[in-house]
Amino acid sequence: MNGIRRTHMLPLHAIAWLFLAALPLAAQVAPPPTNSLPASQSPLGDLTSLNGDAKVWLQDLIKINTTNPPGNEQAAAKYILTILRKEGIAAEELPVAPGRTSVVARLRSSAVADPSRALILVAHMDVVGVDRARWSVDPFAATIKDGYLYGRGAIDNKAMLASNLATFIALKRANARLNRDVIFLATDDEEQGGDASIKILIAKYWDKIAAGFALNEGGNVVLENGKVQYVAVQASEKVAVNVTVVARGTSGHASMPTKDNPVVHLSAAVAKIAGYVAPVHFTAIVRRYFEGLAGVEDDEIAKWMRSLDTADRGEHAQRVISDANPQWNSMLRDTISPTMLAAGVRPNVIPAEARATLNIRLLPGDTIDALLNELNKLVNDPLVRLDVQPDAGLAAPPSSLENDFYTAITKVAAQEFGGAPVLPYQSPWATDSAQLRLHNVQSYGLWPFPLTQDDLKRMHGDDERIPLASFAKGIDVESRIVAEFAVTK
Ligand SMILES: [Zn+2]
After folding, report:
1. From ligand 1's centre to the CA of 404, what distance in Å?
2. Dist. CA 304–CA 127, nearest whole Å
3. d(CA 156, CA 87)
4. How confident is the model at residue 41 (pLDDT cuts 50, 70, 90)?
5. Closest CA relative to residue 244, chosen from 374, 381, 335, 340
6. Which of 171-174's residues contact partners 24+ apart within 8 Å by CB, and which partners?
7. How far, in Å, from the CA of 35 to the mean position of ligand 1?
8. Local confidence band at 6 (pLDDT 50, 70, 90 cut-offs)
9. In whole angstroms, what is the distance from residue 370 CA to residue 204 CA?
10. Residue 53 gets which letter from DSSP?
């Protein structure tokens, strides 16, 4: 990848800096580089050999198939345990469900733990399934090709898992003087959020993982034309709710069409629901995100971003921005995606019932009842009913943008990515951070690896891959963020 500056590959900067520092001020024509400090000046020392280790860990973790369901994360947990113990770190396996365990380890700052100050590095070990026929390489072989490492989990979330592990081990190897406990946590069942998820860990083992701050997946370092365009730090997320649309009628012989055919009523209802556009609601994070993004977007889009929340042009701007990018649309309003349909048993029988599933993503603060009220009015059909499924996510308060950890993230990210804007981000997708935020943890999401939109789109898709240069850069960035926040200078 061009444009990604592997800072530790530039030892000349260090020499140049020493040389300049020895000269009289007037002779110093160029300032020392502030946005690309060589890795030798990293507070945790030279990370070159650690980066090599981390690449092997990532490859090995990809080769351990943790497709969820069933997950089988225990194999990955055992692997991580071995690595931590080899470094002299006392790590513990936490049983969550049969075949599924988590790993927790702690670097202590003092004899008496203060959970409210502790920082936890969180990553899930499970991955989503693959459609093997659509991959150009074996998704579990961790193939390296043209500077990329391919495999399911190459980004989501084994890269983060390996980066967390590397950061944690960097602290240990450097014998860093910590000003707070740093906890490593590898979790299960994030992709399904079921009976082995972080919910269970929190319920069963809170004393082992309690923290005031967390770093998790969920935000991006967006790379465009070889340059980091901006960094989005996830501080809040939308809430997923599944709703079943049920149409009921009279079953009968298909040779004699009926007025109450549930297939027809369901289809009409789904079409109406799909056309519904929920009103725009701004949260503080979304407002700041678009304000910041306007600074790096092209002039035309920037103009509309700046008008999003104005009285005169706001409505038009909201339409332009929503049409321009489905993710922006989803950040501004509740959204509904019909995802499943079920009806009928034979071609010549009118069924008594037809069903559709809606995957709804609510803005934090919006309620499903209010939305269903609108949808029921719109559908306006006594044969059609909307039922909320019991697996709804919980709305969590956003993480603060005013604490030392968020400041450390933004400071280091801006330094490391050439002054690119660092923006707070409300993700359309859900992460484990919601559960943490519900337990008063200030949790932030950031995959610290610079990635293009093309690479980001491969998460959960085919040929998922990470540029090895981005992986190494991400470890450098993450370890600096953690050092900035948790290491006494
Ligand atoms: Zn993930």
Report:
1. 25
2. 38
3. 25
4. low
5. 340
6. 171/44, 171/107, 171/479, 171/482, 171/483, 171/486, 171/487, 172/87, 172/88, 172/89, 172/107, 173/44, 173/45, 173/50, 173/87, 174/43, 174/44, 174/45
7. 29
8. very low
9. 34
10. H
| Residues 202 and 365 sit within 8 Å (Cβ to Cβ) | no
Ligand 1 mean position to 26 CA, how many Å?
52
Q: What percent of the chain is helix, strand and coil (3-state, nearest 5)?
A: 40, 20, 40
128 Cα to the center of ligand 1, angstroms: 9
- pLDDT per position as a tens digit, 216-228: 999 999 999 999 9
- Radius of gyration (C-alpha) of the chain in whole angstroms: 25
Q: Please tell me the distance between residue 447's alpha carbon and the centre of ligand 1 in angstroms.
A: 10
93 near 204, Cβ under 8 Å?
no
Query: Counting every residue, how long is the chain?
Result: 489
Are 169 and 44 contacting, i.e. CB atoms less than 8 angstroms apart? no
Structure confidence by residue, pLDDT tens digits, 402-411: 999 999 999 9
> Which amino acid is present at 453?
Q
- Give ion ligand 1 contacts, CB < 5 A: 156-157, 217
Contact between 412 and 287 under an 8 Å Cβ cutoff? The reply is no
pLDDT tier at 29, thresholds 50, 70, 90: very low
pLDDT digits (tens, 9 = 90+) for 68-92: 999 999 999 999 999 999 999 999 9
Amino acid type, 12:
L
Ligand 1 centroid–CA 203 distance in Å is: 21
State the Cα angle at 118 between 117 and 123, rounded to 5°: 145
Partnered with residue 220 across adjacent β-strands are: 232
Instruction: For residue 52, report the distance from its CA to the centre of ligand 1, in Å.
Output: 23
Q: Which residues of 256-293 are buried (b: 16+ CB within 10 A; e: fewer)?
A: eeeeebbbbbbbebbeebeeeebebebbebbebbbebb
Q: Read off φ and ψ for residue 483, nearest 5 degrees.
A: -65, -40
List pLDDT tens digits, range 194-223: 899 999 999 999 999 999 999 999 999 999
- State in Å: Cα 189 to ligand 1 middle: 10
The pairing of beta strand 213-216 with beta strand 119-124: parallel
Q: How far apart are CA 483 and CA 489, in angstroms?
A: 9
What is the C-alpha to C-alpha distance for residues 329 and 322, in angstroms, rounded to an integer?
4
Angstrom distance (rounded) from CA 338 to CA 329: 16
Who's near 414: CB < 8 A, 6+ residues apart?
35, 231, 420, 421, 422
| DSSP state letter for 127 | B
Please tell me the distance from the alpha carbon of residue 140 to that of residue 351, in angstroms, as a whole number. 43
Residue 74 near residue 100, CB atoms below 8 Å: yes
